[in-house]
Task: inverse folding
């Protein structure tokens, strides 16, 4: 099945106009030594056959009946109206809005997105999106290096292991050194970064301190104190935040964040085995020229209409080339539109309800596990909607439950040996009381 | 095309006006036209030491970015703060209100060796 | 600023009698208000259920949120009904041009048709709801799909190894250069190799990527035939060169007919040969970079493999690499751990079950450059690309390039009288014209021409790229446009060339039928307005409405 409309008659007409005998003549300039021969690509499939093939693959996945898995990717409701909007072909099959006169739909929706992210984070400017939260975090750290002209970055071990790996890879590019600030992983510890430990990692060559709120283990961090510690050492503070939590938790702009990075997946984007997601980045206007990524600005047209354009493009690769802040070209526009539509669909009350329900069900889960004597919270101190529970023999029991279609969260012990025998359990507004009961009952059977 | 004849010009399209050991520097109308609508200027710091033909700032238009190359060496005495709010002065009045910096000349001979208005006009065709 | 028309009414037909022309002073005509301007207190769209009493009671045994971390004021998200919301975004959609509406011959972007069966696949719940950290036994379908896609990309490109992790072409470039550097370091040549060679026709991402990896980008000129200057390349190649990044076919749409010598020279100098795969649509089944000596290439799934552009992403930029770079690939890699690869492929190609095969994520890669993004890549785009490749099959993929190249050459010969053709040779899938004649003779620039094209319901070609062509107009029709569409485009372009001669002012006034006219980009950059100002206060930070009462109070319980 091919999508080319050309018939043999069409092709003949084109060949005649061009003045060659066969289409092969148009490939004569490929040196014979490197011309491709045969290949092992399967035969074409008709639509019903390709659908059967994709259904076959989908069928080899087993979507759990009960899941408490988060660890950076959260199963929230994707409202039907969000899917509807991003399914519109005028949004989905449009290109980057380099010709603004025919791209006002895309441009205005990005302006709305930028506005929403600023409002959630309490910052002055937000970009049109990055690939994901991890790359947004890495770009934020490199931006801090450019702004301060320093070449080391301090990152809290409370950031997800994936984010720290991506940060390390990005920093290896320009040779920026990454220093890890330990968090208190001890039993009955805070599970968070200590400001004094953070201060000890800072020095006059450290560009920024990076910390997450909530952190990877669900714990709440003393962000204002960490921001102060960073600023006292002349460094910037990069806050990595979870967007639904911003309905309840203080905006990073209010506690001294200089740059904010986040993963927007919880805002109306399905888990989709890891992508596409959407990275969020926000900062102060004073640093806008060092911000990587696209920006949309409002302006007017020749006849006095309000309109929107890509702006401050001189920062970007297509103009600055080797002097660009980043090489980013394609971003995640359609996912940013999903997040925009989601935030408008849930509104301030809905986002608060999502946050409250998530927090409540996480507490319900922790309480139920403790009440059944199956485990106890690893850390003291409060958490948002994800909690690290000490559960004996966690890895074995997690695997046993998985076989029965129950995913008992994430096993942090895989990446962090100190947390062997813990489960990281997340709840969202989709978590039901029945889910909690089933989890507890299943854990009971694996004692 | 003719250019003010009391100025000297560098190949990189900067101009210099020398008055008693001090120089005022800027970019020419040719450069401003090539760049198009200028939207931002990164000015040097007062007190900075410029060396001839070294970069001392950046000028940004909607569609392009260009380094600024110092036509003369010396210490920056003053910068034109008006350009921060109104970078478009570089388009509308590049030889007057659009001046970029005033510099204490460390070597008056440098300015002498630059092109005069006629030579610059010939250079830019 | 004020809304010039009655609330709810907006203009989506463009100009014409609905407009009375320019408004005075600061009052701007609003085409479609912002979603914030449609907000009314207490309106809402989606609702959530209330928590049960039992859950609330149980939760009280757990710590609350401390006051010190609580938000002072609720974020001012829009309060709209679902219908209002939908109408707003539908009206915004109406302001866009898109492939699904009309011709989009953007050179270098490959704006081909995005098949809807790809969307059907991506929405299958078994795939869309798959969590990346689910235990591997639950994710065999996702892992198999990634493995099969990688196998197909290997066949297409001739590379023995592939990573699907990069999220976009530029991201793939970053990955490729990081691997090149890791390779040189492993040979003790990391310090000495500091430069990356890039043709002057290169896409801006190439030198930008070089800088991100700490390399110095060095430009190599193109020769008068539009290919890279081999002599200059040989001069520049030395022990301090880490890599050559080259697009093939070039950004001029021309195949590098000395490519074998180019690659040989690069390898002889001990450098890595990187191919920017943006133009793969031209050479499917004709040229396989992995068999031609290249070390690494990035694919753009959103170009060659039809995944939709989405207004600027998401895309996907997998990389194929040679054996010597394979150890450095990003980690983890979906791998077949039980089963014979040839058998698994044969079953998958024939639509048979692959139940016996087991896949896992291989993270045991000690020389890997690490991770370039979270998880494994833009999986949703893999589903679409896989659907596309299986639909087309071997025959279909070859037809893609044949027809893409036919169409571009057809436009080349039909438009070369009306517009200058700097390199009049056989093109591949795109052709670059120059608007310099129109500029010199009539003062009409390529920008003006592009704006005039908009009035015909066609998206302009890429303009002012590549940089080595004055007033460049890069046309890429792709293989999915009918002859009628191509002929109409020729008429439109000839008409504009004629209008440029007879009435240049008319061209310079364009566009006049789009939702907005030319926009003041200088003002947008000089005085940036990058977010909505609530209550007209540009410094508005986190100030907003008071937070509703605490969640513990049952009287504030959200109702369904």
Result:
């Amino acid at each position: 099945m091919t999508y080319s409309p050309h018939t043999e008659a069409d092709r003949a007409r084109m060949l005649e106009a061009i003045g060659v005998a066969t289409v092969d003549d148009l490939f004569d300039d490929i040196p014979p030594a490197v011309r491709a021969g045969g290949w092992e690509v399967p035969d074409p499939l008709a639509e019903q056959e390709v659908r059967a093939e994709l259904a076959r693959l989908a069928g080899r996945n087993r979507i759990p009946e009960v899941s408490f898995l988060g660890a950076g990717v959260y199963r929230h409701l994707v409202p039907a109206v969000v899917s509807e909007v991003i399914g519109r072909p005028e949004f989905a099959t449009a290109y980057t809005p380099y010709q603004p006169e025919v791209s006002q739909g895309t441009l205005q929706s990005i302006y709305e997105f930028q506005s929403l992210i600023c409002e959630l984070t309490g910052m002055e400017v937000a970009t049109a999106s990055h690939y994901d939260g991890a790359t947004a975090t890495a770009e934020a750290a490199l931006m801090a290096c450019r702004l301060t002209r320093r070449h080391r970055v301090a990152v809290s071990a409370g950031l997800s292991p994936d984010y720290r790996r991506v940060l390390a890879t990005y920093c290896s590019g320009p040779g920026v050194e990454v220093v890890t600030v330990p968090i208190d992983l001890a039993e009955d510890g805070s599970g968070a970064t200590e400001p004094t430990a953070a201060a000890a990692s800072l020095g006059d060559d450290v560009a920024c301190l990076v910390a997450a709120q909530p952190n990877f283990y669900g714990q709440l961090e003393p962000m204002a104190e960490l921001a102060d510690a960073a600023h006292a050492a002349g460094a910037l503070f990069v806050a990595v935040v979870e967007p639904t939590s911003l309905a309840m938790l203080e905006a990073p702009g209010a506690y001294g964040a200089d740059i904010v990075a986040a993963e927007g997946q919880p805002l109306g984007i399905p888990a989709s085995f890891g992508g596409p997601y959407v990275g969020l980045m926000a900062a102060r206007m004073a640093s806008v020229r060092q911000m990587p990524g696209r920006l949309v600005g409002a302006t007017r047209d020749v006849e006095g209409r309000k309109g929107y354009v890509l702006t401050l493009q001189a920062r970007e690769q297509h103009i600055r080339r080797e002097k660009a802040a980043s090489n980013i070209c394609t971003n995640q526009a359609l996912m940013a539109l999903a997040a925009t539509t989601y935030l408008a669909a849930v509104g301030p009350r809905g986002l608060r309800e999502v946050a409250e329900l998530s927090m409540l069900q996480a507490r319900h889960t922790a309480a139920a596990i403790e009440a059944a004597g199956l485990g106890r919270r690893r850390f003291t101190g409060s958490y948002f909607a994800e909690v690290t529970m000490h559960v004996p023999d966690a890895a074995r029991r997690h695997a046993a439950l998985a076989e029965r279609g129950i995913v008992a969260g994430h096993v942090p012990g895989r990446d962090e040996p100190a947390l062997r025998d813990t489960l990281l359990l997340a709840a969202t507004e989709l978590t039901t009381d029945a889910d909690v009961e089933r989890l507890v009952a299943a854990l009971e059977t694996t004692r | 095309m003719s250019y003010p004849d009391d100025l000297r010009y560098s190949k990189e399209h900067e101009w210099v006006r020398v008055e008693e050991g001090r120089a005022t520097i800027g970019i020419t109308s040719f450069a401003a036209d090539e760049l198009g609508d200028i939207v931002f200027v990164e000015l040097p710091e007062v007190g900075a030491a410029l060396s001839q033909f070294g970069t001392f700032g950046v000028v940004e238009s909607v569609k392009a970015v260009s380094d600024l190359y110092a036509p003369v060496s010396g210490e920056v005495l003053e910068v034109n703060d008006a350009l921060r709010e109104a970078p478009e002065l570089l388009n509308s009045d590049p030889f007057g209100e659009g001046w970029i910096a005033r510099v204490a000349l460390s070597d008056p001979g440098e300015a002498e060796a630059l092109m005069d208005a006629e030579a610059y006009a010939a250079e830019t065709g | 600023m004020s809304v010039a028309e009655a609330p709810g009414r907006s203009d989506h037909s463009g100009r014409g009698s609905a407009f009375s022309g320019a408004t005075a002073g600061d009052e701007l005509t609003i085409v479609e208000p912002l979603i914030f301007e449609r907000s009314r207190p207490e309106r809402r769209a989606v609702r959530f259920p209330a928590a049960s009493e039992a859950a609330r009671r149980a939760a009280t045994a757990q710590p609350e949120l401390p006051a010190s971390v609580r938000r002072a004021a609720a974020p001012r998200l829009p309060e709209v009904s679902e219908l209002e919301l939908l109408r707003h975004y539908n009206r915004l959609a109406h302001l866009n041009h898109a492939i699904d509406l009309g011709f989009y011959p953007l050179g270098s972007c490959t704006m081909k048709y995005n098949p809807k069966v790809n969307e059907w696949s991506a929405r299958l719940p078994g795939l869309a709801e798959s969590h990346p950290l689910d235990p591997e036994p639950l994710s065999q379908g996702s892992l198999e799909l990634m493995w099969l896609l990688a196998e197909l990309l290997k066949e297409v490109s001739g590379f023995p190894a592939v990573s699907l992790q990069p999220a976009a072409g530029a991201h793939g470039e970053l990955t490729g250069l990081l691997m090149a550097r890791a390779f040189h370091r492993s040979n003790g040549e990391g310090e000495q190799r500091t430069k990356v060679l890039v043709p002057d026709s290169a896409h801006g991402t190439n030198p930008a990527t070089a800088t991100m990896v700490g390399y110095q980008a060095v430009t190599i000129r193109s020769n008068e035939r539009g290919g890279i200057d081999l002599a200059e390349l040989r001069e520049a190649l030395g022990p301090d060169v880490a890599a050559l990044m080259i697009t093939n076919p070039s950004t001029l749409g021309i195949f590098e007919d000395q490519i074998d010598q180019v690659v040989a020279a690069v390898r002889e100098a001990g450098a890595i040969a990187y191919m920017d795969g943006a133009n793969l649509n031209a050479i499917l089944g004709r040229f396989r970079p992995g068999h031609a000596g290249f070390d690494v290439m990035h694919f753009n799934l959103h170009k060659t493999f039809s995944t939709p552009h989405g207004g600027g992403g998401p895309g996907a930029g997998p990389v194929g690499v040679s054996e010597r770079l394979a150890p450095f690939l990003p980690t983890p890699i979906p791998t077949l751990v039980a089963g014979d690869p040839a058998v698994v492929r044969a079953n998958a190609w024939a639509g048979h079950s692959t139940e016996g095969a087991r896949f896992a994520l291989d993270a045991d890669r000690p020389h890997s450059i690490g991770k370039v993004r979270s998880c494994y890549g833009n999986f949703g785009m893999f589903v679409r690309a896989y659907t596309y490749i299986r639909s087309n099959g071997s025959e279909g993929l070859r037809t893609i390039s044949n027809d893409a190249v036919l169409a571009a050459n057809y436009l080349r010969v039909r438009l070369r009288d009306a517009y200058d053709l700097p390199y009049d040779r056989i093109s591949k899938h795109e052709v670059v014209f120059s608007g310099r004649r129109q500029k010199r003779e009539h003062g009409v620039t390529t920008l003006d021409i592009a704006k005039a094209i908009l009035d015909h319901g066609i998206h302009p070609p890429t303009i002012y790229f590549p940089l080595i062509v004055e007033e460049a107009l890069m046309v890429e029709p792709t293989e999915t446009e009918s002859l009628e569409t191509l002929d109409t485009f020729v008429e439109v372009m000839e008409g504009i060339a004629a209008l440029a001669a007879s009435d240049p002012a008319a061209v310079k006034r364009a566009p006049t039928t789009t939702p907005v006219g030319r926009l003041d980009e200088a003002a947008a950059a000089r005085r940036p307005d990058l977010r909505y100002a609530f209550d007209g206060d540009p410094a508005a930070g986190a100030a907003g409405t008071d937070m509703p009462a605490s969640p513990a109070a049952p009287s504030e319980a959200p109702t369904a």
Observations:
- DSSP finds 16 helices and twelve strands in chain C.
- Residues 1-24, 539-560 of chain C have pLDDT under 50 and may be disordered.
